[in-house]
Amino acid sequence: MSGGRERVLARVRRALADVPRDERPRDVRVERGYRRVHGDRTTVQTVDLLAENLADYRALVHRVDASGLPRLLKRLLAAHGSRSVLVPPGLPPGWLAATDPALALVPDREADTAYELDTVDSVVTGCAVAIAETGTIVLDGGPDQGRRRITLVPDHHLCVVRVPEQVVGSVPQALGRLVPGRPQTWISGPSATSDIELNRVEGVHGPRTLEVILVDGGTDV
Amino acid sequence: MSGTSGTYLGMPAFPVAARDAVRDETLRGNLRHATHTIREKRAKAVAELDDWERLRAAGRDVKERTLRHLDHYLVQLEEAVTAAGGTVHWAADAGEANRIVTGLVQRTGQSEVVKVKSMATQEIGLNEALEAAGVRAYETDLAELIVQLGDDRPSHILVPAIHRNRGEIRDIFVERMGSWGRAAPAGLGDDPAELAEAARVHLREKFLRAKVGISGANFMVAETGTLVVVESEGNGRMCLTLPETLISVVGIEKVVPTWQDLEVFLQTLPRSSTAERMNPYTSMWTGTTDSDGPRTFHLVLLDNGRTDTLADEVGRRALRCIRCSACLNVCPVYERAGGHAYGSVYPGPIGAILSPQLRGTGSEVDASLPYASSLCGACYDVCPVAIDIPEVLVHLRERVVQGGEVTRNGERVTIKPAKGHRGERAVMRAARWALDHPGALRAGQRLASRTRRVHPKRLPGPGRAWSDTRALPEVPEESFRDWWQRTRGGDR
């Protein structure tokens, strides 16, 4: 389709005949006078804001110290009635050490079809970064997060955030921490829609239940 | 305009379509309810950021930088996408884009595709082109699904089925879902949560078996080759990650220079469109990733009138648009007339400046769109990339009335003044003559003052339509010029 390419580029250049030839992109000024972060918060306050904003968009938020994480995950999976859980390859093994022996741990395998993923009840992951101002968790396919589809098809997502080290205040700070080339999913609350009379309704195609666990202190249990 | 959104061919001019729409009380009720709900929420979400005006200015600047050097950024984007394992195609118009996408789908051997809501593919009529080639395209966004099942047309950028209330949506689901796949559950009610659940079940089987996904994109980052899709329901994630082949059709103006530039738009877009701090899901991908998501990625860069728009130094600012739809929600004209009257996939104030530029002002509806506004300026106030929509509207009105040089399909052409504006031009010519001849002006003003008691309340003849909706100015007893000469502003 090189014909199309040359035609479109030639049209763009003709359309920009008014732009001086020696003008470089950088010559067009971009005034970045906006804030890097909104408000002045301590680390503790930033984590509190994250919890508050996550809950505001209907994520279920839990706070626990590192030693309590395995028991909490056991309890949450049982409370949801899960019989199987997807496990990313690099999830710290200790996290699911306390779960019921009857709970099937399903590894994240390339060969599995979407139909197979659809039979799994829950998924447990870590995250790359969490944004306090917007109540967002970001996954970037890291070893404790797995392929994008495993946090999409099961109806119940448990996401562990290490606080405070994985928490940033704002969107600009989060982008600075992320690597562009990695596939990313930014998640702010469970799947929702505003398509019926512009009212927000939770629960469409993505996981209808999102539980975010804020873990204090070392988590490599 | 061959191949450009055939759905809208033969649309009547805006005033005609709008007249029918404003008589539809259900439609007006639905629109009033929806636009007022979102208006207040948006104002609240925006008020949370005390640097909103600075974010808005930065968004405008980033887009201006991009547009003034669009060739540079498109080439950079192409290199980055290709280096990351994607294939880039270029389409000058709708027909070319449809041929490229149809060919790509056919090469996979598949006869169905799942689609994420995309303005660009609606604009080019991709679903119809695929249908003609024997490929069924399933819309997966809830509102798009409602439109598709109801054999309807979208009427809002963000919420294409905004003209439907819950009861109407329920009826469409009950009557139509069965013929597209899994039928609606028995006894379906009209609670929004129940309706969303019905859509979930209906579409699930399509997502799980899909081999080809088609999307648009909200942003493309030139320096990294990253595409960004902002959504709420998860249907986007399904289409972007489960299929083996992903085809994205994106307007060339959607490119932004750097990764850092996203920090502006990811703050302004969600708050402007759904009035949220952040939308539930944002997907970002760069070419293909080993063993995660589609193995084949095609990016189709779409012109289809964008370079013609770019060639107009005033009109080009319409290309800054990030499709948030805030301007629709605050527009008094949109609120009453609804989206269909605009005769385009781009309704509302932004549509009134975008459609006549993308498609030209040749058709009746396109020539009437620059007039589908009271120029109140509410759209400009809320626009997160500071597009001065009223200014572009006035510029386009001038073009419609006076004609002149424009670019169509990449060529400079001279368009004739539109029909129906002869009276207006005659009045303007007369005014110019009078203002150039002070003696005649003075004589005319004195005559008008002396006869003021017998002036009619409405104009006769061709002026009647104009004065039907406007009060004629009252002529003072003495003209300003005479008063000034007599008193020197009160000194005498």
Topology:
The complex is a heterodimer of chains A (221) and B (492).
Chain A: H1 2-15, H2 43-56, E1 60-65, H3 69-79, E2 84-87, E3 104-107, H4 114-117, E4 122-125, E5 129-131, E6 136-139, E7 156-163, E8 167-168, H5 171-177, E9 184-187, E10 192-196, E11 199-202, E12 209-216
Parallel strand pairs in A: 1-12, 2-3, 2-4, 4-7, 5-8, 7-12
Antiparallel strand pairs in A: 5-6, 6-9, 10-11
Chain B: H1 14-23, H2 25-47, H3 52-68, H4 70-83, E1 87-91, H5 94-108, E2 112-115, H6 119-123, H7 126-132, E3 136-139, H8 142-149, H9 166-180, H10 192-209, E4 212-215, E5 219-221, E6 226-231, H11 235-241, E7 245-251, E8 255-256, H12 262-273, E9 281-286, E10 296-302, H13 306-310, H14 326-330, H15 332-337, H16 348-358, H17 364-368, H18 378-382, H19 389-402, E11 404-408, E12 411-415, H20 422-436, H21 438-450, H22 464-468, H23 480-487
Helix pairs in contact in B: 3-12, 9-10, 16-19
